[in-house]
Design goal:
Largest sheet: 3 strands, mixed
Strand order of the largest sheet: 2-1-3
Strand content: 5-15%
Shape: globular
Number of helices: 10
Number of strands: 3
Helix content: 40-55%
Length: about 210
């Protein structure tokens, strides 16, 4: 199935609104709990999610050079912005920018949707909130899975076939790794998940210890 640009942008807008509501409902202690992004608390992830709305491309490129690389830049800016902005402001940035046209350097609006969905799961999964990303959004992102993309995010899928238990989707070849579609989406983005969420002889490769 092919989705129009309008479909993808509407999905991203809805995701941002819903995640803003999730953030508004967090207790103060939850903001300081670890996320699935290694070394980042929930507040750093929330701050990072809105950086593209608040910062121009020239400023972002300058920050990359200053920090000495993309990943160093994102960590530096996430920690800085998490310290500067209140939790209410971090939630509001998402809600107020639901229709913002920001996209990552590659991948267009689908990548922007992936940015929102995956970082939202980085927050909700370790907090045990049980949020289910709507199926249509998952289908858009899973259909866009490519070897180049998984490699960029550091996902080691060699010798593994991902098999969703709740959608008709699979990816790769090799030993079967089963899980829900949104958990497997996290795997394709290089995340490790809490124990018990994946099944298969290679599940330990993708599980937090």
């Amino acid at each position: 199935m092919r989705w129009s640009t309008a479909d993808v942008r509407a999905a991203a807008a809805a995701e941002r609104r819903e995640l803003a509501d999730v953030l508004d409902g967090l207790a103060s202690s939850q903001w300081d709990m670890p996320s699935l992004c290694a070394g980042w608390r929930v507040r750093e992830v929330a701050a990072h999610m809105s950086m593209g709305f608040r910062q121009s491309l020239p400023r972002t490129l300058w920050e990359v050079v200053k920090a000495g690389g993309l990943h160093r830049m994102t960590t530096r800016c996430a920690r800085r912005d998490a310290a500067v902005h209140s939790t209410a402001e971090l939630a509001a940035f998402l809600r107020e920018n639901e229709d913002h046209p920001w996209t990552p350097p590659v991948g267009g609006y689908v990548s922007a949707l992936g940015h929102d969905v995956v970082h939202g799961l980085d927050i909700t999964v370790p907090l045990g909130l049980g949020r289910q990303v709507p199926e249509e959004r998952l289908r858009i992102l899973l259909a866009a899975t490519t070897p180049k993309g998984t490699k960029f995010f550091g996902a080691d899928l060699e010798g593994v076939e991902l098999h969703a238990t709740d959608l008709d989707w699979s990816y790769g070849t090799g030993s079967r790794l089963s899980g829900t579609a949104q958990d497997l989406l996290l795997v394709t983005f290089g995340r490790k998940l809490p124990p018990g969420r994946l099944e298969g002889e290679r599940s330990g490769r993708f599980t937090l210890v």
